[in-house]
């Protein structure tokens, strides 16, 4: 079974872990002789036996780099590189890493657990300075065990009780900013089309909407808060209720809902913004900039999330491990208000 004689460079910590019947984290603790690691004698022996039998040795390049200080930062993401706007996290992280002399190693796993484990193991073998772990939308996650082996910052996601710093969009501030934009334009009867999908965006944007109304002294009308599926069909289906409510402005949970609302309002003979002003959320350029009229939208700060994630990882900015660092969501003004 030995692979030590000819192909040692292809043997990874994952191979050793599989042969020894332990986790990748255990293998890393053993081969790096990590102080304080609670590993039984039997597991330690199995790891050493697997290392010897497979001929495993740490990546030579990574070892050389680590002796002088690794200049790699890892970024592991589920589907971020394939989404229409979330790839900006990678751009922000890459730009900030370069500014400080680091190279960003990116792994897009498409949500595959095996690919994710392999990617993290590879980055650990290359002795990365740390890892940014990101999801394609803001949510709570379960932290992969291997991330305990290096400095880690969560980006666009969080894990309560994990002890890891997290950087996320300020959903409440974004919802407040969207509603304030409509109030500033003179509107008092403002509806909010929220999503039916539980998420930080669902609760945060609603809280921001209510906070803006409170600050302006506008009484809440529960009938002005509508739930709809977070797609174009949801906004289209809500149009009739919007017309019946007599509101003059609508804040939509996202741009796809706003796109559907445009269609529904048009069928009812109403014009945006002359009859009903509309604000979206996400600032998906392919939608917001090309609707007629172009849609005012609150942007998710993906680029800045990547920048701040790197800065926290490198110790350039401080962060509270118990509370996610919030990044503001700016309003992008167009002609729908």
UniProtKB/TrEMBL annotation:
<feature type="domain" description="HTH lacI-type">
    <location>
        <begin position="11"/>
        <end position="67"/>
    </location>
</feature>
<dbReference type="InterPro" id="IPR000843">
    <property type="entry name" value="HTH_LacI"/>
</dbReference>
<dbReference type="GO" id="GO:0003700">
    <property type="term" value="F:DNA-binding transcription factor activity"/>
</dbReference>
<dbReference type="Pfam" id="PF13377">
    <property type="entry name" value="Peripla_BP_3"/>
</dbReference>
<dbReference type="GO" id="GO:0000976">
    <property type="term" value="F:transcription cis-regulatory region binding"/>
</dbReference>
<keyword id="KW-0238">DNA-binding</keyword>
<keyword id="KW-0805">Transcription regulation</keyword>
<dbReference type="InterPro" id="IPR028082">
    <property type="entry name" value="Peripla_BP_I"/>
</dbReference>
<dbReference type="InterPro" id="IPR010982">
    <property type="entry name" value="Lambda_DNA-bd_dom_sf"/>
</dbReference>
<keyword id="KW-0804">Transcription</keyword>
<keyword id="KW-0678">Repressor</keyword>
<dbReference type="InterPro" id="IPR046335">
    <property type="entry name" value="LacI/GalR-like_sensor"/>
</dbReference>
<protein>
    <submittedName>
        <fullName>LacI family DNA-binding transcriptional regulator</fullName>
    </submittedName>
</protein>
<dbReference type="Pfam" id="PF00356">
    <property type="entry name" value="LacI"/>
</dbReference>
């Amino acid at each position: 079974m030995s692979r030590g004689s000819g192909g040692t460079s292809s043997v990874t910590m994952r191979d050793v872990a599989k042969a020894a019947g332990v986790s990748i984290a255990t293998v890393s603790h053993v081969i790096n002789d990590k102080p304080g690691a609670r590993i039984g004698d039997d597991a330690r022996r199995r790891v050493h036996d697997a290392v010897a039998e497979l001929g495993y040795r740490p990546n030579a390049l990574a070892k050389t780099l680590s002796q002088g200080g690794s200049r790699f930062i890892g970024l592991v993401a589920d589907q971020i590189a394939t989404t229409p706007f979330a790839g900006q996290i990678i751009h922000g992280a890459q730009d900030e890493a370069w500014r400080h002399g680091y190279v960003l190693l990116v792994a897009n796993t498409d949500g595959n657990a095996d690919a994710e484990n392999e990617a993290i193991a590879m980055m650990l073998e290359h002795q990365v300075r740390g890892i940014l772990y990101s999801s394609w939308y803001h949510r709570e996650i379960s932290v992969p065990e291997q991330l305990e082996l290096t400095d880690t910052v969560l980006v666009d996601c969080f894990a309560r009780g994990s002890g890891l710093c997290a950087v996320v969009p300020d959903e409440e501030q974004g919802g407040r900013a969207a509603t304030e934009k409509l109030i500033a334009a003179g509107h008092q009867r403002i509806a909010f089309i929220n999503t039916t999908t539980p998420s930080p965006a669902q609760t945060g944007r609603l809280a921001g909407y209510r906070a803006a109304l409170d600050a302006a002294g506008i009484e809440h009308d529960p009938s002005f808060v509508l739930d709809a599926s977070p797609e174009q069909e949801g906004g289209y289906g809500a149009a009739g209720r919007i017309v019946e409510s007599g509101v003059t402005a609508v804040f939509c949970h996202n741009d796809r809902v706003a796109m559907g609302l445009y269609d529904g309002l048009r069928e009812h003979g109403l014009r945006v913004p002359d009859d009903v002003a509309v604000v979206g959320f996400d600032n998906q350029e392919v939608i917001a900039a090309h609707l007629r009229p172009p849609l005012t939208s609150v942007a998710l700060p993906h680029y800045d999330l990547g920048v701040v994630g790197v800065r926290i990882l490198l110790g350039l900015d401080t962060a509270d491990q118990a509370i996610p660092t919030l990044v503001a969501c700016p309003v992008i003004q167009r002609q729908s208000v």
